[in-house]
Amino acid sequence: MREFYTFGWYASKISPHLPKEVFEPVPSRLLGGLIYLIIALSGLLVISLLDLHPLWNFLISVVLGFSFASLGFLGHEILHGTVVRRPWLRDFLGAIAFWPLCTGPKLWRKWHNANHHVHTQHEELDPDAWPGLEKLAKSRLLRWVYRIPFVIRAFFAFSALTFTFTLHSIRMLFYFFKDFEPKNRKIVLWQFLLPWASWIGLLFVIGFSKWLFAFLLPLLIGNFIVMSYISTNHRLNPLVPVNDPLANSLSVTVPKWIDVLHFNFSYHTEHHLFPTMSSKYYPLVKKHLKKMWPDRYHEMPMTKALIALWKTPRVYYQQRELIEPLQGHVYGTLGNGLEPTRIQYRKAEVERELGQSFVSSSFKKVAKHK
After folding, report:
1. Record's CDD domains (predicted)?
2. Which of 107, 224, 250 is nearest to 169 (CA)?
3. For the whole prediction, is pTM greater than 0.90?
4. Which residues are bridge partners to 253 per DSSP?
5. 226 shares its domain with 320
6. Domain end among 235, 254, 278
7. Fewest CB within 10 A of the end CB: N or C in the chain?
8. Residue 265 in domain
């Protein structure tokens, strides 16, 4: 893909073909959130008040984990203003929905809405973008990580999906805290501390054995579900100079019933085109995208996308490719040679082709001995 167009350009082409009601908020989405909230509270009470066999507690934990993730998906939609428009109500409902994942609404809107959406897949400005080779070479920690054999690293990377969202949220708090006006910093801090205080407080009330099933295990499950989507949203796509959703985003496909349970979170390219549109209408947007730009639109089954992530590294080389640094194995990205059903790499000649991209001499020394 050589040409890039802004999300506004695509939106201007599709909008005339959409009915006016798709641009209105959809408060009825809150009904699904209420159901998940009741399920979550009921599960917490059952685990806390009854002495059940660990197997039953585990099964309830799985349900809680799915509920935590789905509330997070709804919180994401709420904080884009697609459910209600009043700012105070939007933030209040968003805070409740994100409470299990311990992310505050002000931080989320700063990190996700104002930065990730505006600068998607820009190496320097997108807080969710993965690094390029030059940034990797400047980081001692990343250089150490990328000396670990690829298969082992891939295993731990997928295992880390169980806590990555929580860890990244904490990192974003420190990253963006100074950007808030002084009067808002206390609010941001309280929105971060209160959920954690409530969950840690629950630990002292019910004890660790029950807390493990009531919160910790559901949090890990919720993280894994949320990050399974987030990991496929952009990590197979190239870094781009223009915020082009058809170049930098991927929509995955899941069974219809999962789309219903997860508030159509799988429609990610559509979301980046119309972030203030309810995901209820994304299937309609997808229909027009596939009709108007079938050669630019990227979609694949969720399982296939996750397998492709497992088989490819997460370091960008010259924006449009991915590289395994020590071996010099270069893979394509979506729109730039990546075939998910047949993932292949080309061998880069480290000294000639990568040259000064390896800022650290340690990389060169290790590569020469391979």
Report:
1. Delta6-FADS-like
2. 107
3. yes
4. 301
5. no
6. 235
7. C
8. no
CA angle 173, 174, 176 (to 5 degrees): 70
Among 214, 235, 256, the domain boundary falls at: 235
Tracing tokens 């590289």 back to the chain, one arrives at 323
* Cα 131 from Cα 332, distance rounded (Å): 16
Task: Say if residues 179 and 110 touch (Cβ distance below 8 Å).
Answer: yes
Q: Quick one: which of 254, 278, 228, 218 has its CA closest to 39?
A: 218
Q: Is residue 191 part of a domain?
A: yes
Structure tokens at 166: 């929580």
User: Is 133 in contact with 325 (CB distance < 8 Å)?
Assistant: yes
Q: Which domain holds residue 339?
A: 315-368
Q: pLDDT tens string for the chain (370 positions)? A: 568 999 999 999 999 999 999 999 999 999 999 999 999 999 999 999 999 999 999 999 999 999 999 999 999 999 999 999 999 999 999 999 999 999 999 999 999 999 999 999 999 999 999 988 888 878 888 888 888 888 899 999 999 999 999 999 999 999 999 999 999 999 999 999 999 999 999 999 999 999 999 999 999 999 999 999 999 999 999 999 999 999 999 999 999 999 999 999 999 999 999 999 999 999 999 999 999 999 999 999 999 999 999 999 989 998 999 999 888 899 999 999 999 889 999 887 654 444 444 444 445 544 444 4
